[in-house]
Every structure is written in structure tokens, then in C-alpha cells.
Design brief:
This protein is mainly alpha-helical. The protein has one domain. Helix content is 58%, strand content 11%. It contains five helices and four strands, in the order H-E-H-H-E-E-H-E-H. The strands form two sheets. The protein has a two-stranded antiparallel sheet with strand order 1-4. Strands 2-3 form a two-stranded antiparallel ribbon. Helix 1 packs across helix 2 and helix 2 runs antiparallel to helix 4. The mean pLDDT is 87.
């Protein structure tokens, strides 16, 4: 597994306050491999069936209060993440942590055109 994919999952999990499930039996490399395989499969399917890429599903992953439209790729990644990750009890969600997450998200976002 290329380090960058593993590092991306480690960064995202840590930034959003998640850790590996101790009983999960898999590491970040496994999560990255499964997510990559899922996404590659969806890309290959979309080549011959383009509507797959445009499909949206109303879902409430992670117990969200309201359903939202999710793509198959997003549902796949969320399903894999929730199978192997859990909230890190060592993370204290205070104003400083929330500000840190907001700052990270704004720095990752594309600038408004």
C-alpha cells in the first residue's frame, strides 16, 4: 500500500477524532486498501454505466439526524471507515478542537471561484 493513502486515512481519522477499533483486527493499510478497491471498482463500473456515478442515495450514516444524498463512493468509504474506526475517547471536543477541525477543513477546500 502506498504510504500516501495510508497516511491520508491516518490524518483524516485523527483529525476527526477517530481511532482504530481494537477488536477490528485490521490496520490503516487494510482500510486504505478496501477503500481504494471500492472506489476503483465504482470507477470501472461507471465507464460502462455512467449513471452509477450520478446516483445518489438518501442515507443517515453515522446516525445523522437528517438523511442526505450520498453517492455510492461516499457510502462505500463511510461504511469501510465505520467498520474499522471508532470515536477516540481520548479526544476532548472543546472549542479549540472544533476550531482546529474547521481550520483544517477550510484549508482543504477548493477556493471559491
Amino acid at each position: 500500500m502506498p504510504r500516501t493513502r495510508r497516511q491520508s486515512w491516518e490524518l483524516l481519522a485523527g483529525r476527526f477524532g477517530y481511532r482504530l477499533r481494537p477488536e477490528g483486527g485490521a490496520g490503516v493499510d487494510t482500510i486504505a486498501t478496501l477503500a481504494s478497491a471500492s472506489l476503483r471498482g465504482l470507477v470501472l463500473i461507471a465507464l460502462s454505466t455512467p449513471e452509477v456515478a450520478a446516483q445518489r442515495f438518501p442515507a443517515r450514516p453515522f446516525g445523522a439526524a437528517q438523511p442526505a444524498d450520498w453517492s455510492a463512493a461516499a457510502l462505500g468509504a463511510a461504511s469501510i471507515a465505520s467498520a474499522f474506526l471508532e470515536p477516540d475517547p481520548a479526544i476532548e471536543w472543546n472549542d479549540a478542537k472544533l476550531a482546529s477541525v474547521r481550520q483544517a477543513l477550510s484549508s482543504w477546500a477548493l477556493p471559491n471561484a
